[in-house]
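Reply to dn_fold:

You asked what the input looked like. This is it:
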Amino acid sequence: MLYVLAELDDQERAPAISRDDAMKASGAYARRGGEPTPQLSGPTMASMTDAPTDELQAFKAAFFRALAHPVRIRILELLVTGERSVQELQEALSVDQPVVSQQLAVLRAGNIVSGRKEGVSVRYTVRDPLIEKLLDTARQIFNNHLVGTQDLLRELQRERRRR
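and this is what came back:
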């Protein structure tokens, strides 16, 4: 069975992924002797109506796991401003080329970025412009947490002074 991951107009086509690929990407399989084995964490018998929800949650988890690395976040922050080559990303990030390539591979596998061959190099871009909004929203959430933390620190300092 194949799942299309987004609604698209006739001009765009998203790659469909199999349930098995979605489960692998979500970490729902463990490896034993090189063969994928379903992990038995949580209920082993889900009702038929729960299966699509579980698969959707696994897809969401895989998406956020693909974002869960500092270098990948920095790459995305650069790519939302325009396409870049591995060399341009390497220079902007001050990290080695294999690190950039490895992190781009994770982002490509998660269908978050795509590459376009240009001569001998590949230029990368975000697949969905909403990634920029996602990063901005995350920044706002982190700012709110930091403001709350600063308020707590100030209260602790006031409490310490009262003693």
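The CA atoms of residues 151 and 157 lie 10 Å apart.
Hope that clears it up.
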